[in-house]
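Researcher: We're teaching a course module on how sequence relates to structure. For the next exercise, students receive a sequence and then see the predicted structure as tokens, so they can try to spot secondary structure elements on their own. Here is the exercise chain.
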Amino acid sequence: MSAQDQLCYEEVMRNLTKVLSSCSDRLRIQILKMITQAGSGHPGGSLSAIDLITALFFDAMEGWDAPSWEGLSEDRDRFVLSKGHAVPALYAVFLEKGWMTQEEAFQLRQLGSRLQGHPDRVRLPWVEASTGSLGQGLSVALGLALGLAHKKPRPQVYCLVGDGEIQEGQIWEAALAAPKFALSHLCVIVDANGGQIDGPVEQVMPLEPLVKKWESFRWNVFEVDGHCMDEIRQTLAQVKRFRDQGSAPSVIIARTVKGKGVSFMEDQILWHGMAPSEAQCLQAIEEIQRRWEEK
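Model: And here is the predicted structure for the students to work with:
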């Protein structure tokens, strides 16, 4: 690549990072509106995870650019939201893709709605797995990875877990199995926002040293700022290279902030599972929009 081509490439990548960051904030607003309309839900973990989910669905994951679910390829990358209570983030992505209407988005958590408080793959075809019983999603993702191992190239399987969630023993059983079966196309992303419903993660059940734990289980380990879009994108690209060149699975420990993007929600445990009032929702949206104007 010539020096001029390299400069053009870098400019394109910078612009794409800006576009993805703006998309994340649009989705934050959608998450807040949906949860406020429902009167219940989990804003804290949805807001901490949305930058990661945006980078996956609008950049890293292959085979997800079809205009409808029916057009998606069987060779597409897979995504399992193990921390199922953060599903408003996933619904916001599907709305952004045009796969549902705003009217349906406002049916979050209503009886009879496809948009339940945790992902339901029977009601909603774009969901790869029904999750919500914490600790089980990685085992599902492991099974998907085993089933796709014969494909060439092998689709990447991503599994987003919470840091409170990985206190569950089943997570570590799956973590033992993945290297044994050389599932280099399996990638776990830990949304390490430091909080869970009972309080700070390190008070409920300490996890550190988290990097060394995963390394001891023979995983490729990356640690990133889970709100730096450029860092997220570069790391996801590295994961793909490890898939093609090695045999070990990868884990990304994403250091995030619970309630990220809304100052009165950030690092506040009470927003783990509490819906904002209409006035609080408007305040949060105004804050996000003001941040856009300042950029």
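Model: If you want an answer key for the exercise: Confidence is low (pLDDT under 50) at residues 4-10. The CA atoms of residues 167 and 205 lie 7 Å apart.
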